[in-house]
Amino acid sequence: MPYYRRAGEVPPKRHTQFRQPDGGLYAEELMGQEGFSADSALLYHRYLPTAIVAAEAVDRPAPARTPNLPLKPRHFATHKLDVAGADAVLDRQQLLANDDIRLSYVLADRPSPLYRNAIGDECLYVEAGSARIESTFGDLPVNAGDYVIIPTSVIYRVLPVDGPVRLLTVEATGHIGPPKRYLSARGQFLEHAPYCERDLRGPAEPRPVDGTDVEVYVQHKSRANGPGRTGTAWTRLVYANHPFDVVGWDGCLYPWAFSIHDFEPITGRLHQPPPVHQTFEGPNFVICSFVPRKVDYHPLAIPVPYNHHNVDSDEVLFYTGGNYEARRGSGIQQGSISLHPSGFTHGPQPGAVERAIGVESFDELAVMVDTFRPLDLGAAALSCEDSGYAWTWAGRSLPPPSGGAAAAYPGSARR
Ligand SMILES: [Fe+2]
């Protein structure tokens, strides 16, 4: 995050003696990206952040992944995955994944354990409910519509507040941030950016917590889950003292939140392309926000998206509010996720174009994740799939009996 923040007590000069009330030294920790040549933060701990008393492998096999074969558009009804007693870390249900990104969904109604993702940054999107993101940097309250960026290896936990919280979680294999094209050479948001520094929230003040022998679940890269694939493995570390023992920090690496409701949509006389909705970028993927807006006002405008083929990326759309005009009649509902893979042209459902003509504004709210490598399907996705979705553009709910269409085409036997 290019935006410098400071919270709590830090010494006037970094890397100098900084003493506690009892005369002992605070323990300085530098968290740094890209080999300490990019964003970083300095944290001042009451105890050694290095002091662990136990380390054990946790048996959490990597979720199974199934290729999207046959290739087709897919619809997943995530609310069908709801289970009681879930937490927002260990009970995430993986829906879609490739070696760059893992997309999961969870309805969490209890606090998560302390957790560190050492593989990459995370983006948590709050579909519904409220939560408190507690971390070594302090507390960050979040509500429906909030994106929360958790930098790699930040120890945090998620506490639902006043009831369960619904989250779409994006786990990257690198860093997530604002698109570089929105920032000046020195990292300031430029005037054409659809949001700016004023829209961003960070943890207020660190809130030191007492405790000893405190467990932290660490997700990390490992060959444990087979060669070639980006294997993930889990280790349970037990810290001698509670990791939330920070009295102050400063820098450009910290958890931060941004509300989709602060995304200022860019509209025009004619339909604007998907990149104007871009909100974040990560390694081999982008995240975009579709928010309520006035729509295309050319006298002959067609406000819903034209049919389109994203030849270089898979498109995932998470429908998180309002009425998504282009999808009316397809079975898409609150919390639905559609996957429109590269190799397939998609567009408005039948009749949506005609219905949209003359409409002045849309109230849709959706989060889109485009990945530059194909996505596999997780078991959770297959368990809540609406199998008729692919045929809805043809106005059908089921494919023809197997072999029907092929039988109709004389040459099919040769394939
Ligand atoms: Fe699309």
**CATH fold field value of the largest domain:** Jelly Rolls
How does the major sheet shape up?
A: 10 strands, antiparallel
From the alpha carbons, calculate the radius of gyration and give it in angstroms: 23 Å
Q: Overall pLDDT, averaged?
A: 93
Strand content is 35-45%
By secondary-structure content and strand pairing, the structural class works out as mainly beta
Shape call: globular
User: How much helical structure, as a percent, in the residues?
Assistant: under 10%
**End-to-end distance:** 52 Å
Can you name the CATH architecture of the largest domain? Sandwich
Poorly predicted runs of 5 or more residues: 404-415
Q: Compounds present?
A: fe (ii) ion
- Count of alpha and pi helical runs: 3
Number of strands: 26
Instruction: Quickly name the level 1 CATH class of the largest domain.
Output: Mainly Beta
The named CATH superfamily of the largest domain: Jelly Rolls
Order of helices and strands: EEEEEEEEEEEEEEEEEEEEEEEHEEEHH
Counting structural domains, the number is: 2
Structure description:
It is built from three helices and 26 strands. With 415 residues, the chain is mainly beta. The protein folds into two domains: 5-63 and 83-259, Jelly Rolls (Sandwich); 264-392, Sandwich (Jelly Rolls). The strands form five sheets. Strands 5, 7, 8, 10, 11, 12, 13, 14, 18 and 26 form a ten-stranded antiparallel sheet that branches. It has a six-stranded antiparallel sheet with strand order 6-23-22-25-20-19. Strands 1-17-3-2 form a four-stranded antiparallel sheet, with no helix packed on it. It starts with a strand and ends in a 7-residue tail after the last helix. 37% of the residues are buried. Bound molecules: fe (ii) ion. Fe (ii) ion (FE2) binds next to loops.
